[in-house]
Structures are given as C-alpha cells and as structure tokens.
C-alpha cells in the first residue's frame, strides 16, 4: 500500500524544512539588502543580493534532488524572489541615486524614483508571467531576463558606483537608466538559456574546470566587478542571440530563389 508521504496530493500540500529554510535565507538576504541600503552601506547591500542569488539557486535544486518539491515551496520562493530581486534592488537604487539626482531638479528626481518603481513593477510582472507559463514553457530557456540576474546588475552597479564620492548628474542618470533598462529586459520576449538541462554528473573538459576556478577567484578578489560583468554579459546574450537569429533568417531568405 502506498504511504501518505508518497501520495502526489500529499506532496503538493506538504511543507518541507530544508528547501524552505534556504528560501527563508534568500528572503532574509533581500531584507538585509534593504536595511543596509537605508543605512547607506551599499557594499553590504550589494553583497546581500549576491548571497540571495546563491540561496535562490540552491532551494529549487535541493527540493528536486531530495524530492521535496511542493506547491507551498513554489509560492514561497516566488514571494521571496519578489523581495530579494524586485524590491531590494529598487530600494538600493532609490537610496543611492534618487536623493542625489533630485538636487539637479524636480524632474530628475521623478525620473529616478520612477526608474526604481519601474524595476520593482517589472520584477513582479516577470515573476507572475513565469508562474503562469511554467508548465508550458520550454525548460531550456527563460522568456525575459530572470529577476536574480536583473537584481545582480543593479546591485553590482550600485555596489561598484558607491565608491564615487560625487558621481555627478551623468553618473546618476546612468544608474537610473541601468535600473530602468534592466527592468525592461525582464518583461521582454528575449530568450535566455536556463542551464536547467546541464547534467552535473556528465564528464566535462578540463578547460571548464579552469574557467570555474578563474571565476571563483574573480568573485573572491573583485566581487562587485565579477557580479556586474557576469550578470551584464548574460543580460546582453538575449538581445545578441535575437539579433543573430534575425540576421541568419534574413540571409537564408535572401538566398532562396524567386518563385
């Protein structure tokens, strides 16, 4: 006789400790990023967003490896993502730039806080779209930039820019523009590789081990730069791949003989 814990209906209703504990750590990291930004410590805020990304990557994988996936866990993970990768980066951007950019005029101040709100709103829309299409979407790709990567770009940029004592109007405009453009990428139709099909048990080439070691060294030595470059490169991959596909399609259509 099948036990209750093996029943799919029971598994959907169950609440498991380990994956939800990791999700709570992700939520706490996002909350800490907000508190650190309010206190003016943008280095800690950026690092907290990075830590939230680590826990967010672990909770789902641990749930799948231990067969402890549940409907509760999925909903809880989505709410934690909204705080850590939607509200936290928006607050970090607001605290660092809006008060300063408002000194150059009321219009600039409105532009700054609208950019911060736009990021938070697009993060919520991105998560809602993902939740409603998760059953039918191709597992190999994400539609739109994932919110953790978008948060990494904003947090990494502010973290790196926090060393500026007086960034001036151009620097503040760039920060607000980065926040708004990253938000736009989250709700775009660009496809991004999900890496969910990557098999950790499959043999890999030695060069990949070298690259991983270099990546760890870069993160350890230059965390803000590594976070921004890595997330920024991934964000650009969507538009670049879309452009390459359009060019290939145009070339292929141009080579077809006329009817």
Q: How would you characterize the overall build of this protein?
A:
- This protein has 259 residues and is mostly helical.
- It has one domain: Up-down Bundle (Four Helix Bundle (Hemerythrin (Met), subunit A)), CATH 1.20.120.1760.
- 75% of the residues lie in helices and 2% in strands.
- The chain is built from 9 helices and 2 strands, in the order αααααβααβαα.
- It has helices at 8-13, 17-38, 42-65, 71-101, 106-133, 147-161, 168-186, 206-221, 223-255; strands at residues 141-143, 191-193.
- The protein has a two-stranded antiparallel ribbon with strand order 1-2.
- The termini are far apart.
- The model is unreliable at 1-6 (pLDDT under 50).
Topology as a string of helices (H) and strands (E): HHHHHEHHEHH
Shape: globular
Please give the CATH class: Mainly Alpha
CATH homologous superfamily (4th level) name: CDP-alcohol phosphotransferase transmembrane (TM) domain
- Biggest beta sheet summary: 2 strands, antiparallel
Q: What fold name goes in the CATH topology slot?
A: Four Helix Bundle (Hemerythrin (Met), subunit A)
- The tally of beta strands, per DSSP, is 2
Number of domains: 1
Share in β-strands:
under 5%
Mean pLDDT: 83
Content-based structural category: mainly alpha
Helix content: over 70%
């Amino acid at each position: 006789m099948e036990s209750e814990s093996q029943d799919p209906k029971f598994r959907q209703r169950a609440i498991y400790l380990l994956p939800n504990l990791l999700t709570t750590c992700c939520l706490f990291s996002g909350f800490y990023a907000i508190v650190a930004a309010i206190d003016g410590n943008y280095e800690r805020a950026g690092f907290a967003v990075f830590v939230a990304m680590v826990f967010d990557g672990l909770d789902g994988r641990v749930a799948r490896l231990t067969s402890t996936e549940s409907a509760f866990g999925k909903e809880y993970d989505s709410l934690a993502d909204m705080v850590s990768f939607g509200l936290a980066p928006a607050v970090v951007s607001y605290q660092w730039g809006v008060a300063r950019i408002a000194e150059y005029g009321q219009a600039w101040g409105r532009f700054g806080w609208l950019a911060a709100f736009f990021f938070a709103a697009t993060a919520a829309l991105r998560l809602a779209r993902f939740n409603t299409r998760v059953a039918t979407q191709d597992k190999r790709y994400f539609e739109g930039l994932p919110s953790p990567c978008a948060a990494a770009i904003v947090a990494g940029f502010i973290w790196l820019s926090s060393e500026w004592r007086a960034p001036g109007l151009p620097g503040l405009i760039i920060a607000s523009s980065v926040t708004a453009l990253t938000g736009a990428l989250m709700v775009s139709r660009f496809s991004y590789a999900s890496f969910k099909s990557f098999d950790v048990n499959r043999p890999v080439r030695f060069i990949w081990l070298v690259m991983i070691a270099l990546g760890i060294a870069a993160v350890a030595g230059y965390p803000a730069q590594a976070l921004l470059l890595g997330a920024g490169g991934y964000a650009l991959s969507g538009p670049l791949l879309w452009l390459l596909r359009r060019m290939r399609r145009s070339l292929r259509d141009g080579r077809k003989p006329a009817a």
